[in-house]
Write a structure and sequence with these properties.
9 helices, 45% helix, five-stranded antiparallel sheet, elongated
């Protein structure tokens, strides 16, 4: 993906930069003129340190250093006009100004290096997201589909949340899940689950068989850490037949999908939930798929717990079911766009405590 800002925003960005640069230059000119005209016992030279300090907050080291040199020259002019360059008071002011200018120039250099590293990291994260989380097609058989991923960390675009879809001859299969943990290890576990799903979605005839395959693929890898029971993946695995107004769901400890119908949000709670992927050996239970009605015009909302756990400034959790029900008649893409804006508005400081993923599926009328 192209990480550069849109062409239309670049002239505006340059205008803002020029306006910012005018502030330290104007400050130097103002302080110099007022200090020259001030009474002998008034010294405004110390205010000149604000010019390079302000510049370091938005400009690079070269411009910061240039403003620092300009401020030092201005202080020298003031000293020459008012007394002499060897005057003790002005000598100390010049030395202090030189020292502070060097410090803030170094700060600007370190900030610029950090920004370059973040740009590179975002580029790598974008590439990883394209490889691991492939975009879902807008139309899959009789279904309209939209997906959304929100990363909690500004430096990363993908974490442990995952989703994928696959077409078979007679149905569409989907998975949404959440890997316990964060960082590169969580990304690796998410990639493992997605790879296993894509490999088996076309081969396993029954949905429980697909989930069993995922469990068999995930468990050995999660056990390598030696912390059995500490690593697992919650997931919801679905199959939506093309010719029947139903869906089949296997829940592996994942939050229940929401069925949006006639202004209501109905939680599809299964009677018998399976253990999260990676924990099947710790709990004896059979994998069963439960069937729910999914008719033309219905919208199914899949999500991860990062959506439910988003808090506002008062600590209130995001009311997903209530907000989704209010937009139950909305098409999948528009629904996710509204939920995304509303979720970020709800979250304190427009940030999330955990990654959040959502997938909306609509059964289209024939």
């Amino acid at each position: 993906m192209d990480l550069r800002p849109p062409l239309a925003s670049r002239p505006r960005s340059r205008q803002v930069r020029h306006a910012q640069l005018a502030v330290p230059f104007a400050l130097i000119a103002l302080v110099t003129v007022v200090d020259v005209l001030a009474p002998p016992d008034v010294h405004l030279g110390p205010f000149l340190v604000a010019a390079p300090a302000l510049t370091a907050s938005f400009a690079g080291p070269r411009m910061t250093g240039f403003v620092g040199v300009l401020a030092v020259l201005a202080q020298a002019v003031v000293a020459a006009v008012r007394t002499t360059l060897t005057d003790l008071n002005h000598t100390f002011q010049i030395c202090a100004l030189i020292m502070i200018s060097v410090f803030v120039t170094l700060f600007a250099h370190l900030r610029e290096v950090r920004e370059r590293e973040l740009v590179q990291l975002r580029s790598v994260a974008e590439t990883a997201q394209q490889v691991v989380l492939r975009p879902l097609r807008d139309r899959m058989g009789p279904l309209g589909v939209a997906s959304l991923y929100l990363a909690a960390a500004a430096e990363a675009r993908i974490g442990g949340d995952l989703y994928a879809a696959a077409r078979t001859a007679t149905a569409t299969r989907l998975i949404i899940g959440d890997v316990r943990g964060k960082g590169l290890e969580a990304v690796g576990d998410a990639a493992l689950v997605l790879g296993a799903f894509r490999a088996a979605a076309h081969q396993e005839a029954a949905l429980p068989g697909l989930v069993a395959y995922l469990e068999a693929a995930v468990s050995p890898d999660l056990d390598e850490s030696g912390d059995r029971g500490e690593s697992f993946v919650t997931a919801a695995v679905l199959e939506i037949p093309d010719d029947e107004p139903v869906l089949h769901l296997v829940s592996c400890g994942h939050p229940p999908p929401l069925l949006l119908r006639s202004g209501r949000a109905i939680a599809l709670d299964v009677d018998h939930s399976s253990p999260p992927l990676g924990l099947a050996a710790l709990a004896e239970s059979s994998v069963t798929a439960q069937t729910f009605a999914f008719e033309a015009g219905d919208v199914l909302l899949l999500y991860t717990d990062g959506v439910l756990e988003a808090r506002d400034a008062a600590g209130t959790f995001y009311p997903l079911a209530q907000r989704a029900a209010a937009w139950s008649g909305t098409r999948p893409r528009a629904l996710l766009d509204r939920l995304c804006a509303d979720l970020l508005s709800h979250a304190a400081g427009s940030t999330l405590g955990d990654d959040a993923a959502m997938v909306a599926i609509e059964r289209l009328p024939r």
